[in-house]
Amino acid sequence: MPTTTPLSIQALTADAFEPYGWMLGKPFPTDSAVPSFASPSSDFWREHLFDAGLSGNPEVLWVRYRDREAEVLRLEAHWLTEQAVVPLTGPVVQIVATSTPDGQPNLDSLAAFEVPVGEGICMRPGCWHATRALQNEVTCLMLTRRSTTLDLAIHLLTGAPAGESAIRQIPPHQLVGARGLKPAPMLQRDAEVR
C-alpha cells in the first residue's frame, strides 16, 4: 500500500501562488498605470488580463464543488488556457503543481491554498490542479476557454481522448490544516483505533 504524504494547506498570497498563476482579489492598486477608479460609491480596477490562448474564446462557467476528500490522488491540467476560480458561497482548497519539462505534474512543487470568498486564483496554462470544498457544496465562478470545456466534457462523458487537457494519477497526498475535509478512509480507521 502506497505511503500517504501530508500536504499542508496554506493561506493564499500573491507571492506564494506566483509559480502557479495569479491571486485575484488583491487590494486596490497604488500603481497609477493600472486602470482603476475609486469613489465613495464604488471602486474598480484591473486585476488580471485573462489569456484564453491563441484563437481561444473565454467562457464563464458556474461550478459546484462537492468533493471534500482530504486525500488527493489525481490532478488535471489544461494546456491552452489560463483558468480562474472564484469561490462565491464558501471557501475552497486549490491544490496545484507546476509541470515538468515533459508535461507531467512536478510533485516537488505540489502546494495547497485555502481560497476564501472574496478572493480567487487564476492558474497558468499547464498548471496541474484539483479543488476541494470546505463545506457540503461550494459554488464558484470559473473563467476558462470554451473549447477546453467542450473537450473535457466529451472526455469525461465518453472516455474519448482529451486534446486540451490531461488527468494524471499521483501518489496519495493527505491535505492537512483545514476544517471541513473528510480524512482518507485508512487514516480515519487509524484515528478510530487510537
TrEMBL record:
<dbReference type="GO" id="GO:0000256">
    <property type="term" value="P:allantoin catabolic process"/>
</dbReference>
<keyword id="KW-0659">Purine metabolism</keyword>
<protein>
    <submittedName>
        <fullName>Ureidoglycolate lyase</fullName>
        <ecNumber>4.3.2.3</ecNumber>
    </submittedName>
</protein>
<dbReference type="GO" id="GO:0006144">
    <property type="term" value="P:purine nucleobase metabolic process"/>
</dbReference>
<dbReference type="GO" id="GO:0050385">
    <property type="term" value="F:ureidoglycolate lyase activity"/>
</dbReference>
<comment type="subunit">
    <text>Homodimer.</text>
</comment>
<dbReference type="InterPro" id="IPR007247">
    <property type="entry name" value="Ureidogly_lyase"/>
</dbReference>
<dbReference type="InterPro" id="IPR011051">
    <property type="entry name" value="RmlC_Cupin_sf"/>
</dbReference>
<dbReference type="InterPro" id="IPR024060">
    <property type="entry name" value="Ureidoglycolate_lyase_dom_sf"/>
</dbReference>
<keyword id="KW-0456">Lyase</keyword>
<dbReference type="GO" id="GO:0004848">
    <property type="term" value="F:ureidoglycolate hydrolase activity"/>
</dbReference>
<dbReference type="Pfam" id="PF04115">
    <property type="entry name" value="Ureidogly_lyase"/>
</dbReference>
